[in-house]
Amino acid sequence: MPEVGNPLTYQAPEAEVAPEVWVLQGQGNALAVGTEAGLILVDSGAGGSRTDEMISSLRERTRAPVHAICYSHGHLGYNAGVPQWLAHAEERGDPAPRLIAHQNLVRRYRRYRETAPLQQRLAELQFRMPLGSIEAELEITDPTETFADSLTLTPRAGATGRCVELLWAPSETDDALALWLPEERLLYGGAAVIASIPNVGTPLRTLRDTVRWAETLERLADLEPAVVIREFGPPIERADEVQRILRATAEALRWLREAVVARMNRGMNVTQILHDLEYPPELFDQPWMAPVYGCPDYIVREIYRFENGWWDRNPTSLHPASQDAAASAIVSALADRRAVLDRARGLAEQGQHQLALHVIDLLALAPGEDPDIAEARKLKAEWLRVRAREVSSFVSRSLYLSSSRLIEENRGGGVGIR
Predict the structure, then answer these.
(1) Is-contact 131 416, C-beta < 8 A?
(2) The domain containing residue 385 runs over which residues?
(3) What CATH code is carried by the domain that includes residue 346?
(4) Does one domain contain both 97 and 225?
(5) Confidence band, pLDDT 50/70/90 cuts, at residue 1
(6) Same domain, 118 and 205
(7) In-domain check, residue 87
């Protein structure tokens, strides 16, 4: 499948994409829209120097006050810079901007506050950062206004200026929004539209609805945009290309749903489904479906999880022993540990690193510092780095590399991530 650069840094150049409509570089592609009441900003950035740069960049273009800051979705970091924008407004003597989000974002922020240490750890693993390194960056500022299905931002009663519509666009999150300028036919797709296959089923995140994401893309396509600003990647600048990308992506998501359900109905488990599927190239070998963040296998797992619950169909896993106890029992039952090491090395030498990892786990997961176990962990860490070069998904690469580093630091045993 085709691959493009890291979607987390693959941002559009800052530019005026329509009169008084600017793309800014925040956590992703942020947007500023001029209206009679002032600027409508989508996303405030990750805070710190990144948000300072956003403010400076915008002020090179306009001195208008910021009327509203809209949260594209509730993932941490995209609006960590809200306090800086509020302070900027106060310094200028402007009224505090309206802070607008979809109503589901409030619940998400409440959950993030409750699970803050977990959220920090997950972000550090996914983005290859040292554990404990981003605690200060997870700033959360609640919105002051929310909406359900849509909200039209009318600058003043009876005003005849630019109309800005916020639309609920459930996709990567259930609180995502899109911004629509009907007169210009310009759409900010936010988290629903990225330069990658939709990241449904990301390993460390909660359930995402595949069909609902497809429905969102179809609904956005029905607006007939002439230009679409994506959360990551360059704008889509031709109406026919907008239709092609949005509708083909939705079709691919619906194909995955139908293909997985058909196999579930035949009694196949998720591993069997993953190895039985052949992804149609006309749907999946497309630049906008590049598996640089999400990947088709993730989506298969998510669809399966939606319908099947957590059980992998192995009765042994219903009420498992502790991981350390099970691994110790396995190691003690091995007649020849060196044979395990040799077999795993042989598979790796043949280029079968995934099979080598399955074999080496017979030793690597056991507790303790026995020399054979320590050697197994060293080999596992080495092969995880190889696997990171073999896969295209940014998230998979990150988790392989984070796990490898933690194993080498002797944190989390042979798993690395706990």
Answers:
(1) no
(2) 321-408
(3) 1.25.40.880
(4) yes
(5) very low
(6) yes
(7) yes
Contacts of 172 (CB under 8 A, 6+ apart): 73, 75, 191, 192, 198, 199, 208, 213
Burial of 255 (0-12, 13-18, 19+ CB in 10 A): middle
Mean pLDDT to the nearest integer, 402-414: 88
Instruction: Find the distance separating the first CA and the last CA of the chain, reported in whole Å.
Output: 32
Match 């054979």 to its residue by tokens.
Answer: 372
Cα–Cα distance, 80 to 83 (Å, whole number):
8
Q: Give the number of domains in the chain.
A: 3
Q: How confident is the model at residue 414 (pLDDT cuts 50, 70, 90)?
A: confident
Which of 213, 231, 253 corresponds to the end of one domain? 253
Torsion of CA 111, 115, 117, 123, to 10 degrees: -50
Render the burial of 289-320: b for 16+ CB within 10 Å, e for the rest: bbbbbbbbbbbbbbbbebeeeeeeeeeeeeee
For tokens 């796990």, name the residue. Answer: 403
CA 274, CA 251: separation in Å to the nearest integer? 19
Share of the chain above pLDDT 90, in %: 79
- Tell me the per-residue pLDDT of 216-258, one tens digit each, with 9 for 90 and over: 999 999 999 999 999 988 899 999 999 999 999 999 999 999 9
Find the angle CA(206)-CA(7)-CA(62) to the nearest 5 degrees: 105
Residues 284-338: pLDDT tens digits? Answer: 999 999 998 889 999 999 999 999 988 888 899 999 999 999 999 999 999 999 9
Number of Cβ within 10 Å of residue 252's Cβ equals 25
Radius of gyration of the CA atoms of the chain, in A: 24
220 and 247 both lie in a single domain: yes
The residue to which tokens 């507790």 are assigned: 367
105 occurs within a structural domain: yes
Helix, strand, coil percent values for the chain (each to nearest 5): 45, 15, 40
Q: Are residues 275 and 365 in the same domain?
A: no
- Given a contact cutoff of 8 angstroms between Cβ atoms, the answer to whether 69 and 88 are in contact is no
Give the model confidence (pLDDT) of 144-200 as tens digits: 999 999 999 976 555 668 999 999 999 999 999 999 999 999 999 999 998 899 999
**In this structure, are 81 and 166 located in the same domain?**
yes
99 is a domain residue: yes
Q: How many other C-beta atoms are found inside a 10 Å radius of the C-beta of residue 195?
A: 23
**CA dist 261 → 251, 254, 302 (Å):** 15, 11, 12
Same domain, yes or no: 77 and 170: yes
